[in-house]
Amino acid sequence: MPLPTHPFGTAITAEDIAERLQKSPHWEDRYRELIRLSRQMPTLPQAYQTPENEVFGCENRVWVAYELTAQGQFHFVLESESRIVKGLLSVLLSQCEGDLPQALVDKDLLALFNRLGLAHHLSATRNSGLTAVAQAIKNAAHAALDHS
After folding, report:
1. Cα–Cα distances in Å, from 90 out to 18, 44, 70?
2. Using CB atoms within 10 A as the burial measure, which of 53, 103, 117, 128 is most buried?
3. Is the entire prediction scored with pTM above 0.70?
4. Residue 127's domain spans which residues?
5. Helices 14-22 and 27-38, packing angle to 10 deg
6. Cα 15–chain centre separation
7. Which SUPFAM superfamilies match (predicted)?
């Protein structure tokens, strides 16, 4: 069963998300925008919600599933039980979808959260969870490089 498709990284880029969030001067508005983004995230099929794909260290349960395309690009689907976490995951997804492994290894996936002031409004446990998800994405990239 292939992973579901989504608009993140293609139709909705990291810069698109940054523009949307920068138009919202207040945290509550940004929060609502993240919830709107979460509604565009695909649901990860149950078959992929396995202990191997679960990211530990998150406040809510999170799964990272991926496949490599024939061109060697990553296709990720990120899942959480929480809508706000799913919205935060959409920001990560917009930055890593379609990347080659080396590009992901070299990318700072958390920089956008700092640039947009999102990290400042998140709890320590939520920030730790985002760091764990970013590390899981980088681990996938390292594994792909090791197998090439």
Report:
1. 12, 13, 24
2. 53
3. yes
4. 14-146
5. 140
6. 14
7. SufE/NifU
- Catalytic annotation present for 96: no
Pair 8, 93: CB distance under 8 Å: yes
CB of 145 within 8 A of CB of 106?
no
**2 occurs within a structural domain:** no
Sign of the C-alpha dihedral, residues 36, 56, 64, 144?
Answer: positive
Q: Which of 17, 34, 58, 64 is catalytic?
A: 58
Residue with tokens 């608009």: 7
pLDDT in tens, 92-117: 999 999 999 999 999 999 999 999 98
